[in-house]
Design a protein that fits this description.
The protein is α/β, with parallel strands linked by helices. The protein contains eleven helices and eleven strands. The chain folds into two domains: about 210 residues, Spore Coat Polysaccharide Biosynthesis Protein SpsA, Chain A, CATH 3.90.550; about 80 residues, no CATH class. Strand 1, helix 1 and strand 2 form a beta-alpha-beta unit.
Length: about 325
């Protein structure tokens, strides 16, 4: 039996995850600290719910919650947080899995931390993970460093994708839950808001979270609404407390980075629908206009060299 101080609820939001859910759940059950595995079926149309019930019948630690309407990961995770009772919570995506000993390694670093996050072991679909178990070392993560690690681009740290241990008492004290309407960046928003509230957040190297990268994943197919909600969540984070100039600058850079992607998406839609008003409105700021002009020039160059699309005036894949 795990120590009461390390008892952890593992939350799995599942949508059409019949092919991968069992592996995820079994990897969670292999963690001695896992006292609860909360599966929330997000109105799947395949056999996910049936499989989840079968897994629950095999181990009393597994519980199943069914949503009748698809609400997205935030809604599903909030339902599980409400039902769980363990002092620690963590998220496991239904197509990912954990190596045995991961939770023990994270708990060993917990100390007085409210969030403890390891580096994801990104692994192409169908391949075995390549990593070596090393003694993890904890490093404090500041609000500024976290926000700047989510600016996107080739050099981005993508800190918002982390799946940390979260101290439930901190979440409850500050009323922190996932933003229900968000289907993109919901993790970023929760972690940034927690840091704004003064969360003690530590990170370390790889301890055993396997993030499976699938070809043709829809995770990058972001709608304008998704991008707008992600951009505007920064306004709510800024209102938590008075930010330092450094923190405010970092948050502004993140807002602008998402706004660029949003305006590029809006411009693509405007061109396809021949909406001149929408196209002009995308150039709403100096920053957005500069970015869009650069992207358009890039498209012209790609087409002139035969590397871009021949028919479509803009490539939607460039919007991500």
């Amino acid at each position: 039996m795990p120590s009461p101080d390390t008892a952890t609820a593992i939350i799995i939001a599942a949508y059409n995850a019949e092919a991968t859910l069992e592996r995820a759940v079994l990897s969670a059950l292999a963690q001695p600290e896992a006292t609860e595995i909360c599966i929330v079926d997000d109105a799947s149309t395949d056999g996910t719910a049936t499989l989840a019930r079968a897994l629950a019948a095999r181990d009393a630690r597994v519980s199943v919650h069914l949503l009748t309407l698809n609400g997205g990961p935030s809604v599903a995770r909030n339902l599980a947080i409400t039902s769980a009772t363990s002092p620690w919570l963590t998220i496991l995506d239904a197509d990912d899995y954990m190596i045995e000993g991961r939770l023990a390694a994270l708990h060993a670093l917990s100390g007085d931390a409210d969030f403890i996050a390891d580096t994801l072991i990104r692994t192409p679909f169908g391949e075995e993970p390549r990593w070596q178990r090393r003694e993890p070392k904890a490093q404090a993560l500041s609000f500024t460093s976290f926000v700047l690690g989510n600016l996107g681009g080739a050099d981005a740290l993508d800190l918002g994708f982390m799946k940390p241990l979260m101290r439930r008492a901190f979440l409850d004290t500050h009323g922190l839950r996932y933003q229900a309407a968000m289907r993109l960046g919901e993790d970023y928003e929760l972690y940034a808001r927690a840091l704004a509230h003064g969360a003690r957040f530590v990170t370390c190297g790889e301890t055993g979270y396997i993030s499976v990268e699938r070809p043709g994943s829809l995770s990058k197919e972001h709608s304008a609404r998704d991008l707008q909600l992600l951009r505007d969540c920064d306004d709510g984070i800024a209102a938590v407390r008075t930010l330092t100039p450094e923190e405010a600058h970092a948050l502004r850079k993140h807002w602008q980075s998402v706004d660029r992607r949003l305006q590029w998406r809006r411009l693509i839609t405007a061109v396809k629908t021949r909406d001149a008003g929408m196209a002009l409105s995308a150039f709403h700021s100096v920053d957005a206009a500069s970015f869009l002009v650069g992207k358009l020039a890039e498209q012209v160059w790609l087409r002139s060299t035969g590397r871009g699309p021949r028919r479509a005036p803009l490539s939607t894949s460039e919007a991500h």
